[in-house]
């Protein structure tokens, strides 16, 4: 039986992963650990085979007053937990990073493991610095698995996709411009994490869905599920194409951003 410690209690990804493994009751024991205060420092990590670190902050406003908080949580906490994991002789540490480390909101070329990282947000910078410091801990007996998922979505997911759906529900109009973006459902991400744990994987991983996401398709599917009537218009497409790369929100919604397959 694999024993897995999730550091980051009640996180969207961590909790979904714990629920996902409930279908294998004889193969996995999973515990979530609250790391919001320093009590985790007294917890015994040594009984576990893998630590899956999902604690972090992402969806708070990026203003100068919050800069230190991003680094305190996304970098310093992650590195300190990784160090305790290694000191406790745990075999594997899985760090949940992000596609944001590349510093791109759209690109006409594929992203892969060799693409240079130039993060330009507190979130991206703090995640990338954590990656670099955690990788230094890796050795033959301590496997470091760094995961850079693209946008994660699913029922109840936080983030930009939920806000987009809210806007569509309010205005009932949406453009038909087609794009391609890497994304991953939370269920698919859970499958990948299970695989990395089973294989005691080490290295950098870029998981994604088998097919790229098209914004208009995912909006249509969601609104159909909710029985929300929406008018889809092509008249806005030329203006949107012009604004991609110039206006952040439009670029995030309609620009291409893809991992290679």
From TrEMBL:
InterPro entries: Epimerase_deHydtase, Lipid_A_modif_metabolic_enz, NAD(P)-bd_dom_sf. Residues 4-172 form the NAD-dependent epimerase/dehydratase domain. Pfam families: Epimerase. SUPFAM superfamilies: NAD(P)-binding Rossmann-fold domains. It comes from the Bacteria. This is NAD-dependent epimerase/dehydratase family protein.
């Amino acid at each position: 039986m694999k024993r897995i410690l999730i550091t980051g209690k009640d996180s969207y990804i961590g909790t979904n992963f714990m629920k996902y493994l409930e279908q294998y009751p004889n193969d996995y024991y999973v515990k979530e650990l609250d790391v919001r205060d320093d009590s985790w420092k007294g917890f015994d990590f040594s009984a576990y085979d893998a630590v899956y670190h999902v604690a972090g902050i992402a969806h708070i406003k990026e203003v100068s007053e919050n800069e230190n908080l991003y680094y305190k949580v996304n970098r310093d906490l992650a590195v300190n937990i990784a160090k305790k994991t290694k000191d406790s002789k745990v075999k594997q540490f899985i760090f949940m990073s992000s596609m944001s480390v590349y510093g791109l909101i759209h690109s006409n070329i594929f992203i892969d493991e060799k693409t240079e990282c130039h993060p330009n947000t507190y979130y991206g910078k703090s995640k990338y610095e954590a990656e670099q410091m955690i990788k230094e801990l890796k050795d033959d007996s301590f496997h470091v698995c760094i995961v850079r998922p693209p946008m994660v979505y699913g029922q109840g997911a936080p983030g930009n996709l939920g806000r987009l759906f809210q806007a569509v529900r309010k205005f009932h109009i949406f453009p038909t411009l087609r794009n391609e973006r890497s994304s991953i459902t939370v269920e698919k991400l859970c499958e990948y994490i299970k695989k990395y744990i089973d294989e005691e994987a080490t290295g950098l991983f870029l998981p994604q869905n088998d097919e790229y996401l098209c914004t208009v398709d995912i909006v249509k599917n969601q609104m159909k599920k909710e029985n929300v009537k929406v008018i889809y218009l092509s008249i806005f497409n030329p203006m949107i194409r012009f604004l991609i790369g110039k206006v952040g929100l439009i670029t995030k919604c309609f620009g291409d951003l893809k991992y290679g397959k």
